[in-house]
Amino acid sequence: MFKGPVESKNEAAMSELVPEPRQKPAVPMKPMGINANLLGYIGIDTIIEQMRKKTMKTGFDFNIMVVGQSGLGKSTLVNTLFKSQVSRKSSGWNREEKIPKTVEIKAIGHVIEEGGVKMKLTVIDTPGFGDQINNENCWEPIEKYINEQYEKFLKEEVNIARKKRIPDTRVHCCLYFISPTGHSLRPLDLEFMKHLSKVVNIIPVIAKADTMTLEEKTEFKQRVRKELEVNGIEFYPQKEFDEDLEDKTENDKIRESMPFAVVGSDKEYQVNGKRVLGRKTPWGIIEVENLTHCEFALLRDFVIRTHLQDLKEVTHNIHYETYRAKRLNDNGGLPPMTVETEENHESNL
Amino acid sequence: MAASHGAGQPQNDGCRSLSLSGHVGVDSLPEQLVNKSIKQGFCFNILCIGETGIGKSTLIDSLFNTSFDDPVSTHFQPNVRLRAQTYELQESNVRLKLTIVSTVGFGDQIKKEESYQPIVDYIDAQFEAYLQEELKIKRSLHSYHDTRIHVCLYFISPTGHSLKSLDLLTMKSLDSKVNIIPIIGKADSVSKTELQKFKVKLMSELVSNGVQIYQFPTDDETVSEINAIMNGHLPFAVVGSTEEVKVENKMVKARQYPWGIVQVEDENHCDFVKLREMLICTNMEDLREQTHAQHYELYRRCRLEEMGFRDTGPENKPVSLQEAYEAKRHEFYIEMQRKEEEMRQVFVQRVKEKEAILKEAEQEIQAKFEHLKRLHQEERLKLEKNRRVLEDEMAMFIKKKAAAELLQTQALVSTPVNFKKDKDRKNFT
């Protein structure tokens, strides 16, 4: 059944004759899309395979930042997520090291290879966050770091002779660790998320979830969600970026179960004849990957297996573009050369 | 085009390779990327350059197994134009926005020096549109409908001898802007032995003239072998057909001649299958990537330099484009202000002049008025004087009349004899 060619016959007259552009190349009008029915297999769908091969060759970048007070299990969780010793702790950090007086930013890079896919993973740790007596503005160094990465990317993008692949150091995802008090969010938590939710994708997680019972967990999560909503804080996945109905339903489900209450561990124990990652306590073994025990598996699947590419895309298409637009609009902070030219021009007048 | 940004080459400097103690799920990344691309859909733009009647539309119809129905053009076009049409094709879950741009009237003119210019301008216009979008402050690159030409199929006439000078000229002006795949159109008019010689001659001419045609990439092991073989078969000798002929109980695309049937999809008859294989099934993504990473970047670089931006400032210190952009913007702003001031001055000047003229005119009129008033005044005085004189005369006359009448009555009383004479005499005095 061919509707295609008949339609295109009538619309053939619509085919745009591109006006001859002279000196300045004119932007031609966009031609109309006409649906054409295919009479046989061509092989257009092989482009998927071509694309897949190319991406496997080039590899992926992923930069994840962990923020939270010390002792909340950040390093352990990151190790559990990536099933290896990625954290600062394991890269030579000494447990006896003093807590820094200001928030420091430490980025460590690793290369993970699985199934022929290479990923350059950078874990950015923020020791010292929320650990002082006076925690005023302790999110500022973090915000500064994130903006610096955007600035670096912008500078590269705006070069005349640019690199084939601009190294991407922008923070794609920020895991924010909430203390499992069982009551509500701390003022520091709200302040941090308020400032940073517009700049980076924040995924709040409830740390050390093994200290709460199931009811306490549900109540706490509800309260946290309510508080975030009341304060206008949008965590990832943001409602405004849902592309279509499918995305919306999928993301709604996830948003309803966030923040994920997680437990991390890098030790293995024998449970029911299987080796599992867990925490051994006098009253039992808490299995990290058991969904009835904690939501670690949900977090892992969410961040790595389903939404990693989306995290990167939201960072690139939205947060980075916002930064860029603001930066290009701002006239402030121009180097002295512009002030000189202004003076010169005034003297000419 | 999600593949082009963000995916950096994993550098092993300073980074430890991790050994995983379990399944992380990183291997799902290509799948995630591919799914996003599928959702967005793909764009592919083909430019067909060739003389009128060489079989461009038929070949495209054969390649995409559908009838796009382009109207047939005449040989009497005054100059070369381009016709662009976009189609939306779908195969399984892949949506492709295919744009076919064909030349109209190429090679038909008597004077052909300007023939290639509209083509170059069109390609540049697409790059320019993309560049403008990229330079915008508020931009939407990832939903931008990419109209840049990804591949140029250059149709060579099957003369059997060599390249025409128009072909050389056109290809030379396009080789740094677009991926060129030369093909021999209507190849069923060249015999097998002639074809081999023809191909060799064409390739050597291209090489000796320094024309850069697209080389199928040989860096990926899975396709390097087949690509290398295909590179040796260039230019592809193609035959297109949308008509079907029955051959051995099957309907195949073919051209029927009195002496036989040329089957389009038979590799012994022509290179159509090779072209389709190379263009669509193997290298579509590479063509898109080359266009973006090589041709577009070159265009962008030249254009930005043309606009006056530099990567290094006057003292050879690296100047960011953004700073240069800001400086230029500031410059323009100052210039604009200066021009405004100038215009304002000119305006003020003109107003003053006009005012002066008007004032002069006013004064003139005033002077005239005064003059007229004076004249009027003088007239009036004169008339007054005359009136008085007249009145005096009248008074005198009345007096004389009265005196005469008195004398008359006296005379009537005394001497009636001399009455008539005296009266006459008196009347005459």
Automatic annotation (TrEMBL), chain A:
<feature type="domain" description="Septin-type G">
    <location>
        <begin position="58"/>
        <end position="330"/>
    </location>
</feature>
<dbReference type="InterPro" id="IPR030379">
    <property type="entry name" value="G_SEPTIN_dom"/>
</dbReference>
<feature type="region of interest" description="Disordered">
    <location>
        <begin position="327"/>
        <end position="349"/>
    </location>
</feature>
<dbReference type="GO" id="GO:0005525">
    <property type="term" value="F:GTP binding"/>
</dbReference>
<comment type="similarity">
    <text>Belongs to the TRAFAC class TrmE-Era-EngA-EngB-Septin-like GTPase superfamily. Septin GTPase family.</text>
</comment>
<dbReference type="Pfam" id="PF00735">
    <property type="entry name" value="Septin"/>
</dbReference>
<feature type="region of interest" description="Disordered">
    <location>
        <begin position="1"/>
        <end position="29"/>
    </location>
</feature>
<keyword id="KW-0342">GTP-binding</keyword>
<feature type="compositionally biased region" description="Basic and acidic residues">
    <location>
        <begin position="1"/>
        <end position="10"/>
    </location>
</feature>
<keyword id="KW-0963">Cytoplasm</keyword>
<keyword id="KW-0547">Nucleotide-binding</keyword>
<dbReference type="InterPro" id="IPR016491">
    <property type="entry name" value="Septin"/>
</dbReference>
<dbReference type="InterPro" id="IPR008114">
    <property type="entry name" value="Septin3"/>
</dbReference>
<protein>
    <recommendedName>
        <fullName>Neuronal-specific septin-3</fullName>
    </recommendedName>
</protein>
<dbReference type="GO" id="GO:0005737">
    <property type="term" value="C:cytoplasm"/>
</dbReference>
<dbReference type="InterPro" id="IPR027417">
    <property type="entry name" value="P-loop_NTPase"/>
</dbReference>
TrEMBL record, chain B:
<comment type="similarity">
    <text>Belongs to the TRAFAC class TrmE-Era-EngA-EngB-Septin-like GTPase superfamily. Septin GTPase family.</text>
</comment>
<dbReference type="Pfam" id="PF00735">
    <property type="entry name" value="Septin"/>
</dbReference>
<dbReference type="InterPro" id="IPR027417">
    <property type="entry name" value="P-loop_NTPase"/>
</dbReference>
<keyword id="KW-0175">Coiled coil</keyword>
<feature type="domain" description="Septin-type G">
    <location>
        <begin position="40"/>
        <end position="306"/>
    </location>
</feature>
<keyword id="KW-0342">GTP-binding</keyword>
<protein>
    <recommendedName>
        <fullName>Septin</fullName>
    </recommendedName>
</protein>
<dbReference type="InterPro" id="IPR030379">
    <property type="entry name" value="G_SEPTIN_dom"/>
</dbReference>
<keyword id="KW-0547">Nucleotide-binding</keyword>
<feature type="coiled-coil region">
    <location>
        <begin position="344"/>
        <end position="393"/>
    </location>
</feature>
<dbReference type="InterPro" id="IPR016491">
    <property type="entry name" value="Septin"/>
</dbReference>
